[in-house]
Amino acid sequence: MASSRFMKIVSPCWKSSAVADDDSHRSKDGSFRNGLLWYKDSGHHACGEFSMAVVQANNLLEDQSQIESGSLSSLDSGPQGTFVGIYDGHGGPETSRFLNDNLFHYLKKFTSEHHGMSTAVIKKAFLAAEEEFLKLVRKQWLTKPQIASVGSCCLAGIICNGTLYIANAGDSRVVLGRTNKATKEVDAIQLSTEHNASIESVREELRSLHPDDSQIVVLKHKVWRVKGLIQVPSTMFHLLP
């Protein structure tokens, strides 16, 4: 895509509300929408400033994102910090919306029970959210069968007590931008590793989990896919403190 066309498409992400187009509107949370563009200007959170921008691929937004700041526990006396969640939905918006509504709740619950933040707490929150969504699928799939084919990748970043925790399930990637003091340029630092069938270790794990299914991973059009359909395995977690 030509750079001029690209900038024309994404430039509203950096517009202030004062110069937004007539078809734009501001939400109660301070975010702004203009057609398929959504953005939220810089604001303060417990661990610094933040901003968000989303460019939809189509009219149905399958992806969700959230920033929560303050207590990371159900107890007011719990640890303070900032939680960022990015949910890359596929097949529909149901899973990403469920994560957006529930993952942080589980994180706070288990932080309270374990009296602090840890990689174990984050993994328990991921597993609890997954199990609860699977219950929803079992309950609804006879009347809403398409829900059984809906999924979402999940990235979570948590800053707590001076430590950055990164968790991901699926093939989204966390990249940290850090200013190089010598060159004044921004260096991109990869913080997480994708989970998809293009990675040999992931294919081997899927085969070991499904020894009776010769089609669990299939090379299709030179791309490895789970059941020949999708690159992302159903359940995998990778946690970095």
UniProtKB/TrEMBL annotation:
User: Which Enzyme Commission number(s) are listed?
Assistant: 3.1.3.16
* Domain called PPM-type phosphatase: residue spans: 46-241
InterPro entries membership: PP2C (IPR015655), PP2C_BS (IPR000222), PPM-type-like_dom_sf (IPR036457), PPM-type_phosphatase-like_dom (IPR001932)
Pfam families annotated for this entry?
Answer: PP2C
Q: Which UniProt keywords apply?
A: Hydrolase, Magnesium, Manganese, Metal-binding, Protein phosphatase
| GO MF annotations, alphabetized | metal ion binding; protein serine/threonine phosphatase activity
**So which cofactors does this thing need?**
Mg(2+); Mn(2+)
The protein's matches in CDD domains, at most eight in alphabetical order, are given as: PP2Cc
Lineage top rank: taxon: Eukaryota
Family from the record:
Belongs to the PP2C family.
Q: What is this protein called?
A: protein-serine/threonine phosphatase
What species was this sequence derived from? Thalictrum thalictroides (Rue-anemone)
